[in-house]
Every structure is written in structure tokens, then in C-alpha cells.
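Incident log, structure service

09:12 report received: a user says their structure output differs between two submissions of the same chain.
09:20 pulled the input from the user's history:
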Amino acid sequence: MKTIFLRLTATLFSIVVCLLPPSQAARLPPHDGIGPQLTPDLQRSPSAGLLEQSYAKPCLEPTPLIIDSDAYTSRCNEGKGPCFELVGTTMQAKIVEPWHEPLNMTEHVIVADSIAHYFDQVDIVVCTAFTMRDPSVAFTITFDVDSALRFRYMNYDAADGCYNVTLSRWKSKHRLSVGQKPGERELDTLNHEETGKRFCTDKLLITVEGVVLEEL
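09:34 re-ran on a clean worker, output below:
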């Protein structure tokens, strides 16, 4: 009798979860200990909302993320970085995972918006920006699953605001680079499968672009 009751309870829970809107439905994590991704009770400003996801691949399960421009502005304008701006891509259809310990990354990532912005000086488009509620949280972002194109952040030091960044890729069809200014490449995966260094800046630009292979 107890077994039947437990099965009935589990079935009813599954039905309720399926009927919930996307912002309140739990998604089981792809790896043990990461998640579940549950977003209804997050601390956010009244204008915040879920980032609309574009599913580039049928099997891809991107991390649900929250757009909260007020929280992003408050954090980044007061120099509480680091803050990251994306060039050539957005945070849509991206997998964000904790590096050291199991965490729900939906609670930790603050996305500024999903609207493209332009630099006046150079022909570079900043698609969106994001920061972390707690800069000490280490994380990795998979920008392209096929190329294993990843950005890793870790070892934040509150005393000097410095942190480590590592870029990695498997295939060379995509290029990932970071710099403190538009067009600057202090780290670049063009000729390296993995590269990294320590930064001490409040703002870092992350650029994703395709690689044109030269014909032999």
C-alpha cells in the first residue's frame, strides 16, 4: 500500500511540474549535483524575467538564465565586478556550470539584456553582458558544444579583484578570445587548444567568432 501511495505521489508531482510555466518548471541537471534549475523564488528586481532561449541544437539543454538589468547596472556601475560583455554571441543556448561545487547557476548569473549594442569607435557588436551575484563562484560556460568551446573563471581574490580565466576548445572551427578593450586579444584559442592568465580588471570582453580555414 505504501509503495502504491509513493508511486501515485510521484506521478502527481510529475504532472504538476509539466503543467507549470517554463519559469517555474524544474529541469533535472545534466550532471549529478548541478541543479535542479528552479527559478520562481530568485531574488530579482520587478523588471527582471527569464532570458528567452533559442535552441540551436535539438539535444541541447541550455541553462535557464535571468535578465535583470537593474541588478546588473547596480553591480557593475559600482565597480563590484568583474563584469563580462559578449561580442559575436549572446547568452542564449549556453551551458553554464559551476566549476568547484554543485550550485544552481540560474541563481548566480545576472544577464544585462539580450539586445545588441554597438561601439561607436570600431565595428564591434556587444550582444549582451553578464556578471555574477557572488564573484567568488567559479564557473565554466560552454559556448559551442561541438567545438567544446569553453570559458572558465576561477580563483577570485577579493583583496585585489583579480581572477583566473582559461579558454579551451577542441575543434578549430570557432575562435574564442578575451581582452579588456574592443578588438584586443589577451587570450586567444586560434593557435591554442587551451590558454589562460590572471586578470585584474572590472570588465572583460569575450569574443566568439568563426574561423575561416585557408585552402591548401
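09:41 both user submissions now match this output. Likely a transient worker issue. Closing.
09:42 reviewer note: The chain has one domain: 2-210. The chain is about 15% helix and 30% strand.
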